[in-house]
Amino acid sequence: MPPEHLIPAHPDPATQALPYPLALGRAGLSGFPSPAQDYEGRTLDLNERLVKHPAATFFMTVTGDSMVSLGIHESDLLLVDRSIDPRPGHILVAMVDGEITVKRYELLGNQPHLCSGNPRYAPIPLGELDCQVWGVVRAVIHEYSV
């Protein structure tokens, strides 16, 4: 993956509070929220919500289809935190034998592996490979076509 796909987070991001009504988005059938809830004055700043460690956070654009069943698609934007210690189940950005990859960290038979979210790709055993973890994925931003 070329370096132009890596974007450092701003170390001191400007506040960008956007309207955030109290209504919860339900992905099923439900009644409509009260129109009065739109005027309750709540706001949401995605930097405040998602970027917990600005100096250790970067953004990265995804290429490829190896993580599709885990909800990560081509051109999605990942928010990656270098300050989090990786644990099994975390999705990592790592340099494996000179190539940047996004995979889920798992223990298979007590051996560490990087696993894709696509059955077309076999797990990568880490015992014999040069692997440098760049960070843990904290969020995925997926834009829908309009």
Automatic annotation (TrEMBL):
One of its GO terms (molecular function) is DNA binding. CDD domains: S24_LexA-like (cd06529). Residues 31-137 form the Peptidase S24/S26A/S26B/S26C domain. Keywords: Autocatalytic cleavage, DNA damage, DNA repair, Hydrolase, SOS response. Pfam families: Peptidase_S24. Gene3D superfamilies: Umud Fragment, subunit A (2.10.109.10). The keyword Phosphoprotein does not apply. One of its GO terms (biological process) is DNA repair. The keyword Nuclease does not apply. NCBIfam families: PRK10276.1. Belongs to the peptidase S24 family. This is Peptidase. The lineage of its organism: Bacteria, Pseudomonadati, Pseudomonadota, Gammaproteobacteria, Oceanospirillales.
